[in-house]
Amino acid sequence: MSGVADAEALLARLDSEQREAALATHGPVCMLAGAGTGKTTAITHRIAYGVASGVYPPSKVMALTFTAKAAGELRSRLRRLGASGVSARTFHASALAQLNFFWPQVIGGTMPRIVDSKGRLLGQAAESLGLKLDTATLRDLAAEIEWRKVSRLSLDEYAEADRALPATVNLDRMVALHKAYEDIKDSRRQIDFEDVLLATAGMIESEPRVADHVREQYRFFVVDEYQDVSPLQHYLLQLWLGDRQDVCVVGDASQTIYSFAGASSRFLLRFPSEYPEATVVRLERNYRSAGPIIETANQLMRGRPGALALRPAPPASTSAAKTKQSAAPTFTAHASDGAEARAVARAIEAELAEGVEPQDIAVLYRVNSQAVLLEAALGDLGITTRLTGAKRFFELPEVKQAIMMLKGAVVGGAAEPLFKTVSDVLRSLGWSQQAPETRGAVRDRWESLNTIMTLAEEAGRGIPLRRFVDDLSDRAATQNEPTMRAVTLATIHAAKGLEWSSVYLVGLGEGLLPITYAKDEAAIDEERRLLYVGITRARDRLALSWAAAGQGGQRQPSRFLAELRTRTPGARSTRG
Hints:
The chain is an alpha/beta fold. The chain contains 24 helices and 19 strands. It is globular, with a radius of gyration of 26 Å.
């Protein structure tokens, strides 16, 4: 078969919009690709078509994405399509390769060692300033340093930014810690992960021969998940391009859920105005989800900046059509977190009895600590679970420490009621009844400790401390990594890019989604987008639920649920 015939065969597999994108082999291209619309298919077939038709020399193409896993998936698909010479890397991997190559030529000697732990260096920086900070606060400080750098802010500019800081660190101390961290790092001839991008950009910007070499090496760029680029990544991409415009960006503004880490959808949204001659293709044909689920997703995002109007693909090509007729999403209220977990577990048990495979079911939630009650409820019914995207609850340092201290209280013969003893132990570890008003590691630590408090409340007043501690220890001991034939438990953040036949979105109450610390309009909008990502993970069945009481006290249903229940045709509301 000739190269032209091979290229035409690739196009035959695409729908009309994907075909339009594949044929736009030159010039700026913007692919606005909604959830479930086959964007990876569009990306890989566009590249493979360019290679097969002779437009792209494979070695001159760079496909950029955000995780090593996604880059590996792109390489694998491109190999199957006959484009094995194309590079597919993360921004950091590409920059690091260039930095390793050019450092000896431009700076001299070997490249500095990359910092393996910001927390350790920040601990030393804090000590040099006479500050004693716990591990969770140090993790939050590391996140602030990363945000400042990827946002391309100087320390003076950072000081002017209105950032929510840990309660124990005011702005002056925060800036001093940033400076001390940089001083220690420089004195040891080290660079951190963000410095890799900064240094690469600096070399290209200041050294014409480096810029010429880089721009000659790669001439055609494709950037996946463009809604997640940071200002620093966008700047580096512009340096890689130079005055050329052979770039294709792919993204969905409605799936921007990492703004807290510096991601910004503004680069995606303004691409058509930045490149007025750009080819803009909208992929809105959803191949993943049943019609009622698509309608729910559309209702949530209608009228939002950059929102796409998803529509069901033809039945013959939709995964949902391969199963029985999909029902409308359900909306269920429960009395407590425990009641919600048990109801979800029973519903999953019923699905498994119908023949649904466990790996086709997922329970998604906002924060990691919500997993513990779900694990317990599913475990009580003999249902195997797999935790995705986080450390298992009983492996968390604060949880291990709390259990150890509770065991000590048993040995010491604590005579107080269970609730009082557990409360005293957790308070000694920094827990309080009121949740911290900020996001990050400090809030995560509180959520973990508060979950133990919730378990004590659920256990009942008459349960002896020893029995409660033995129960915790038994749960911890049986937390071996489950087999793949398991129901997935995951935060919504960790679920991005994945899909299941049946999805349960739990804990949809005010204070959890939107989360308590989402105060301003931008933060609330990000919570809305997070729920959208959760909804669009489902193929055939979608269940949304909330609990009136649980961690943090009484709750109201999420404001987003109120919108969906009144707008979504056929939606069924029940009380569990």
